[in-house]
Hints:
Keywords: ATP-binding, Cell membrane, Membrane, Nucleotide-binding, Transport
Protein name: ATP-binding cassette domain-containing protein
Structural class: alpha/beta
Bound molecules: adenosine-5'-triphosphate
Distance between the termini: 27 Å
Largest sheet: 8 strands, mixed
Number of domains: 2
Number of strands: 12
Shape: globular
Strand order of the largest sheet: 6-7-8-3-9-10-12-11
Strand content: 15-25%
Membrane topology: Peripheral membrane protein
InterPro entries: AAA+_ATPase, ABC_Ni/Peptide_Import, ABC_transporter-like_ATP-bd, ABC_transporter-like_CS, Oligopep_ABC_C, P-loop_NTPase
CATH architecture of the largest domain: 3-Layer(aba) Sandwich
Order of helices and strands: EEEHEEHEHHHHHEHEHEEHHHEE
Helix content: 25-40%
Family: Belongs to the ABC transporter superfamily.
Radius of gyration: 21 Å
Amino acid sequence: xxxxxxxxxxxxxxxxxxxxxxxxxxxxxxxxxxxETLAIVGESGSGKSVTAKSIMQLLPKKTxxxxxxxxxxEGNDLLTxxxxxxxxxxxxxxxxxxxxxxxxxxxxxxxxxxxxxGILKHKKISKKxxxxxxxxxxxxxxxxxxxxRMKSYPHEFSGGMRQRVIIAMALASDPSVLIADEPTTALxxxxxxxxxxxxxxxxxxxxxxxxxxTHDLGVVVNMAKRVAVMYAGQIVETGTLxxxxxxxxxxYTWGLMQSMPKLHQDRSVPLIPIAGSxxxxxxxxxxxxxxxxxxxxxxVCHNHMPDQSTISGTHSVSCWLQDERAPHVEKPELGGxxxxxxxxx
Length: 345
Ligand SMILES: Nc1ncnc2c1ncn2[C@@H]1O[C@H](COP(=O)(O)OP(=O)(O)OP(=O)(O)O)[C@@H](O)[C@H]1O
C-alpha cells in the first residue's frame, strides 16, 4: 500500500497563443501524501494555478497542450480520463477552493440552497438529509447560527465568512484531496489566520490531503509540512518546511524569504523585493530561468539548465551553485530565520 494519494510527474503544460507557445508548466513533479499538506509557493505567473487546474482539468481545452507527464490519483492517470470520468472525480474526490469566494458563489441563491445543491450533486440522499448535512458543514467551518444563516445571500456575508462557505461546499463530498489556490489572499490578516486554522482543524478531523497554492510564505509556515518552490513553470527547490526555511539552497528561495515580513519585525525595516521580474514564459532560453535576476549568476547559468541536486531524502534543488566547480556562496540573512520554530516542527 502506498501513502501517496496524488502523484504529478514530469508535467508539461503549454498554451497556444498568437505570440507562440506559453510554456506555463515544465517538468513539474511532486507527490501529495495521504493526510499531509503540501504548499506550492512562488511569485505570480510561476505556474502554480496552471498546475492545480491541470489536476482538476479546468484549463481551456482549445488552447491547452499537455504533451508530457502524468497525474496519478489513487493509481489512475487522470490525464487519460474522459470528460465524464473526470466529472465524477472533480468536486467529489478532489475539490478546489479558489481565491475569490464571490466568483464561486451564486449571488442570487441563498447560501443554504447552494451548499445543499453541492451535497445533492455528490450524494444520493433526500433533501431533508442534505439540509441537515449542509447545516453540519456550515457549523464545521465555524458559521455562527448556521441554520439561520442558510437563509442569507452571499452579499450578506463578510469575505471571511464567504470563504468559510466555499470551504464547506468543497467539503460537501468528503473529498480525499482539497486544492486551495490562494485561499486567503483576498482576506485581511486576522481572518487569513482563522481560515488557515480552520483548514488545519478540518484536516485533523477528516484526514483530507491538502495542496495549498500561495505566493505568501507566511501561509506556508502556518499550514504546510512540505514545500515546493516554483519559478517560471518549474519546481526549483523542494523540501520539508524546516529545510526550506532554515537550509534553503536556491537563490530564488532566498529572495522569496527576504521579501517576506519577519515575525516581530520593526516595521521601519524595509523588506527586500526580488529585483527584476519573472521571465516571459513564451520566450524562455535554455539556461536557468532565474539567471537574469540571480545575484550569484555564473556564465553557465545563462546557457544550461542545472540538474536537480539531492540535498537529503526530502530536499532537492536545481541550481548551478550546487555544482562542485561553483564558488562557495554564503546564504544571506533570511526572513525565515525569524520564523517561529515551533510552527515548523
Ligand atoms: N488560459 C491561459 N491561456 C494562456 N496563458 C495562460 C492561461 N492560464 C495561465 N496562463 C499563463 O501561464 C503562466 C502561469 O500562470 P499561473 O496562473 O499558473 O501563475 P500563478 O503562479 O498561479 O500566478 P497567479 O498567482 O498570478 O495566478 C502565466 O504566464 C499565465 O499568463
